[in-house]
Design brief:
The chain contains eight helices and three strands, in the order ααβββαααααα. The chain has helices at about 1-5, 10-15, 40-45, 55-70, 80-90, 95-100, 105-110, 120-125, and strands at about 20, 25, 35-40.
Amino acid sequence: MLIAFYSGMRLAEVLRVKIWNDAFLLEDTKNGERRVIPIHFKLKRYIEHIPIKPARSTIQKWIRIAMRKCGHDDLHFHDMPHSAASEMINAGVDLHTVGGVLGHKSAQSTKRYSHLATKTLAEAVAKIGKRRI
């Protein structure tokens, strides 16, 4: 779950990912394009201790157990990339960059998160009329 949240990767991508320098390397992605995602500093210590890549069913089982223990039976692995996008938008990251992290081929895919950028919108509106002559 942490890998999905701090990278925006889908489960299928987590299962295929390779470590390359200080980044995740995805050769085979949903949109067919190679993607490199920098490894978040909070993940580095966990990645060093993962000896093998567990099977998809094992990961899904771990997720169900973890969500149940946290009282979030309605949460799914696929919610994590959406949460990552929301966090980035709320932190002021632009939609183009968020789309790059998530591997969106078109801006339309990332646009669904634009409603979260209220701070950015407010800052944009505040700049109206401040043109210096």
